[in-house]
Specification:
Length: 504
């Protein structure tokens, strides 16, 4: 891929429709990493997490987890494990530095770690915004977000709970979501983590699609978010899911959920120390469950508004924490997750755009391996926005293009064009330009560069209105990726049987 007058993954196109069914390789960020921690700073953070994990410890609300730590010779009092830092590092060293994941369509397989970046949609909002309307999320909304994720080549995954389908039965909606992710997309997907039961269903459905337990253990098919209940507690439901996914060799993202001032002290160094303690303790447990199980060092680090107490996103502090996290994860030899198109804004306005960029830019600078919430996040994660989904996809395309290394060769130097044009001329009609004008510059699918008069004749549409038109057109053009009918029937039978067993 080249940045310049050559086609590549992130090249723009005259028409949005040309993007819809594009098949492209996953993005690899080979730019230098932006590291802001000195050797002394890393040493101070290292001493901090060692003290915290030894003297204060981490609470695990699982008898099975506590038993594993005891059997490994660690100190356990009530539900708190006081872990030897050297023991923790021994366990962390068992985790692979990089690993592969298989998608239903092999063209959408991904690599996690190294210079690879994997982008997934927003995760977890109970509400949806469509234009001016904010409402409860529905299963139809979930389906539409999955279809949009399939249609945007810049996304490697629809994610998991793209929005909460509040009109589906609570006990069985995980079946509906997993089925949708497996059939409406042919990309990798995230597993449900509400309970061990839900995790087992996700694994069983993966076995149906990919040919059995051995096949998914050899190359995993789902990746799951296991959040720490910060500060310093892993709760029972998350741990139930962790055990199931680790036993099946499906990767898990061990993620402290830290809003500085609420779930951690207000200083960035203190939050980083807590984040290291929580993430490494979870990773150590994952390796006790199944040595060599693929894991991701997770981070969700921002701060609260100290006047209102509300969570804030796209802040300078979150950007600094993100850059530090990348450097810390590489220090431990682990792939890492952080970043996304985060914002506190209620609508897809200028604030939503600049806060998303304030998070996405350090995401790229840090070389993040797994990027959740890449598209659609609004209102502090309470809302999945259709227009915001499109805006974020545009940002991702532009950043991927910007972070593709410049290739300098004889053709790019264009000496012959200078000979042709001479002094005081222009290059618009030069042969060098004519050969490259269709692909020489990235063309955004969302932005408008029309003059004012032409823009007004077209309706004077702002970014949000144009984004609304694009996502609706994407859904009109969407075609469900093909799936073996026998496999689909087996999935449907499984969902129907489990729904009945769960009482829905």
């Amino acid at each position: 891929m080249r940045l310049g007058c050559d086609p590549g993954r992130s090249q723009g196109a005259p028409s949005d429709a040309t993007h819809v069914f594009e098949r492209t390789p996953m993005f690899r960020n080979t730019m230098p990493r932006y590291e802001i921690l000195s050797g002394d700073a890393l040493a101070a953070l290292d001493g901090g997490w060692r003290r915290l994990i030894t003297e204060v410890g981490v609470e695990f609300m699982s008898d099975e987890a506590l038993r594993l730590f005891r059997e490994a010779g660690q100190k356990v009092e009530d539900n708190t494990a006081f872990l030897d830092p050297e023991f923790v590092l021994e366990q962390v060293a068992k985790a692979p530095r990089e690993f592969d994941m298989q998608a239903r369509n092999p063209a959408n397989n991904v690599h996690i770690g190294g210079d690879a970046m994997v982008f997934g949609a927003v995760y977890g909002p109970p509400f949806v915004r469509e234009g001016a309307v904010r409402r409860d999320g529905t299963l139809a909304d979930f389906h539409n977000f999955a279809r949009l994720a399939q249609s945007f080549a810049v996304l490697d995954s629809a994610g998991g709970v793209v929005c909460e389908p509040n009109d589906a039965p609570l006990d069985s909606r995980h079946l509906d979501m997993t089925y949708a992710l497996q059939t409406l997309t042919d990309k990798i997907y995230m597993g449900n983590v509400v309970s061990g039961v839900n995790a087992r269903d996700t694994i069983a459905m993966g076995e149906i699609v990919f040919g059995g337990r051995e096949a998914i253990e050899q190359t995993p098919v789902s990746i799951s978010l296991i959040n720490c209940n910060s500060p310093l507690r892993w709760d029972d439901r998350m741990l139930e899911a962790l055990f199931e996914y680790c036993r099946a060799a499906q990767p898990v993202i061990l993620t402290p959920f830290i809003l500085m001032g609420a779930m951690s002290p207000v200083t960035i160094p203190a939050a980083l120390v807590q984040q290291i303690t929580e993430a490494l303790s979870g990773i150590a447990l994952a390796q006790l469950i199944r040595p060599g199980c693929p894991v991701v060092f997770g981070s969700f680090l921002s701060n609260i508004d100290m006047q209102s107490g509300s969570p804030t996103f796209g802040t300078p502090e979150s950007g600094i924490g993100l850059l530090c996290t990348g450097q810390i994860a590489r220090h431990f030899g682990l792939p890492f997750r952080t970043g996304g198109g985060l914002t506190s804004s209620q609508v897809p306005d200028a604030q939503a755009g600049y806060e998303a960029l304030m998070t996405l830019l350090p995401t790229f600078l840090a070389g993040t391996n797994v990027v959740m919430h890449s598209a659609g996040w609004l209102e502090g994660g309470l809302v999945a926005g259709f227009e915001k989904f499109v805006i974020d996809a545009q940002l991702l395309e532009m950043l991927q293009h910007e972070f593709t290394p410049l290739e300098i060769d004889e053709a790019a130097l264009a000496f012959d064009a200078h000979v042709e044009v001479g002094h005081g001329g222009h290059f618009l009609g030069a042969m060098h330009t004519m050969e490259r004008f269709r692909t020489c510059f990235y063309r955004p699918f969302l932005s408008s560069s029309e003059n004012y008069e032409r823009w007004m004749r077209g309706g004077g549409k702002d970014t949000a209105v144009r984004a609304g038109e694009i996502w609706r057109r994407r859904l009109e053009e969407y075609a469900e990726p093909p799936m073996d009918e026998a496999v689909k029937a087996q999935l449907q039978e499984y969902v129907a049987r489990r729904r009945a067993e769960l009482g829905d």
